[in-house]
Amino acid sequence: MNIHEYQAKAVLKEFGVPVSRGVAVFSADEAEKAANELGGPLWVVKSQIHAGGRGKGKFKEAAAGEKGGVRLAKSVDEVKTFVSQMLGNTLVTIQTGPAGKQVNRIYIEDGSDIEKEFYLSLLVDRATSRVSFVVSTEGGMDIEEVAHNTPEKIVSFSVDPATGIMPHHGRTVAKALGLTGDLAKQANTVVAQLYTAFVAKDMEMLEINPLIITTQGQLKALDAKVSFDSNSLYRHPDVVALRDESEEDAKEIEASKYDLAYIALDGTIGCMVNGAGLAMATLDIIKLYGEEPANFLDVGGGASEEKVTAAFKIITSDPNVKGILVNIFGGIMKCDVIARGVIAAVKAVGLQVPLVVRLEGTNVEEGKTIIRESGLNVIPADDLDDAAQKIVNAVKGAR
């Protein structure tokens, strides 16, 4: 689960991490009050969307002006103008794709006098099963570019969970960033605070880009991007309360209600599969035969008829779907359950596109019989390769 920058900074502030003062606003009317509350003389007006690259992004609408999604304002009137231009308009960045994201909230923050910018992030390293730090002197830049062009400028290390964060970790960060004296002490403190926050809140990723040194000699998190492990959210109702569903795909929100692993994609063939590995293989073979999958959907190993019905309804709610492939290998999941779920869903929402069903495994003959006797216009398939070719040909033939 992702949250906005202003929310991430509020979480980090609970653990003592130094951040600038700021106020989130949801309407242009709130902008003047927020600007006066902060006092100026320099304000930073930041679009709040779940995507990076906001500063370099561009708005689709001419009314939003030509500047990006992060702007410096030198007066209260300028703050009000920027907020009015940005709110409700669509910001396109390198991470949003061409569709962009609508800006529904703005963060107005005190301006900072910046002397240096650094990059610092924490994430779970699957290779070591530990929390790892990634640090670079090249703050304010895309870390992917730094990794590609100047990998020697990136320092990474992991923290042993048996010991937790230790002073030598802070010294490693300070050395990597070329910090000495009081700034090295500040780095040691901030590193400990960030690690504590990461573990306490079950974060998946914590990125500060940039971490700055102000001209007053203070380390400060000027930006913050945080995502949480969705499997741990039951432990953190305060984090769940930060969820902004307007930033998420409506189909993905509906899928989460049924504990379905669903990710919307840009293709034309809807997929319902059980098992993440089989789902990935299904997506790959659809691409192999010249079409694009419209989603990743894993109904899981023990799905009920209700769950299968919900999954099918979610797939058919996507207007881009021109064909559906159901690919089930019944181990724990029973093929007859899938068959009944598909039939129930088709009767509930109708079937306007070609449907190919491949069943194999537990109760497969019963499942095939249910499908065959249902009267539905279903194309049966013998195996995955056969299923992929049939749905691709059906979609192409319908054009």
From TrEMBL:
Q: State the free-text cofactor note.
A: Binds 1 Mg(2+) ion per subunit.
Q: Which enzyme class? A: ligase
Q: Name one GO biological process term.
A: tricarboxylic acid cycle
Which GO cellular component terms, listed alphabetically, does the Swiss-Prot or TrEMBL entry include? cytosol; succinate-CoA ligase complex
Q: Which GO terms describe its molecular function?
A: ATP binding; magnesium ion binding; malate-CoA ligase activity; succinate-CoA ligase (ADP-forming) activity
Quote the catalytic activity from the record: GTP + succinate + CoA = succinyl-CoA + GDP + phosphate; (S)-malate + ATP + CoA = (S)-malyl-CoA + ADP + phosphate; succinate + ATP + CoA = succinyl-CoA + ADP + phosphate
* Pathway per the UniProt entry: Carbohydrate metabolism; tricarboxylic acid cycle; succinate from succinyl-CoA (ligase route): step 1/1; One-carbon metabolism; formaldehyde assimilation via serine pathway
Binding positions (substrate): 274, 331-333
Detail which positions bind ATP.
Answer: 46, 53-55, 109, 112, 117
Query: What cofactor(s) does the depicted protein rely on?
Result: Mg(2+)
Q: Which residues bind Mg(2+)?
A: 209, 223
The alphabetical list of record keywords is: ATP-binding, Ligase, Magnesium, Metal-binding, Nucleotide-binding, Tricarboxylic acid cycle
Ranges for the ATP-grasp domain?
9-241
- Stated EC number for the protein is 6.2.1.5
Q: Which Gene3D superfamilies match?
A: ATP-grasp fold, A domain (3.30.1490.20), ATP-grasp fold, B domain (3.30.470.20), Succinyl-CoA synthetase domains (3.40.50.261)
Domain of life assignment: Bacteria
Q: Which PANTHER family does the protein's record reference?
A: SUCCINATE--COA LIGASE [GDP-FORMING] SUBUNIT BETA, MITOCHONDRIAL (PTHR11815:SF10), SUCCINYL-COA SYNTHETASE BETA CHAIN (PTHR11815)
User: What does it do?
Assistant: Succinyl-CoA synthetase functions in the citric acid cycle (TCA), coupling the hydrolysis of succinyl-CoA to the synthesis of either ATP or GTP and thus represents the only step of substrate-level phosphorylation in the TCA. The beta subunit provides nucleotide specificity of the enzyme and binds the substrate succinate, while the binding sites for coenzyme A and phosphate are found in the alpha subunit.
Query: To which protein family does this belong?
Result: Belongs to the succinate/malate CoA ligase beta subunit family.
Assembly and interactions?
Heterotetramer of two alpha and two beta subunits.
NCBIfam families in alphabetical order: PRK00696.1, sucCoAbeta
Kindly provide the name given to this protein in its UniProt entry.
Succinate--CoA ligase [ADP-forming] subunit beta
Which organism encodes this protein? Agaricicola taiwanensis
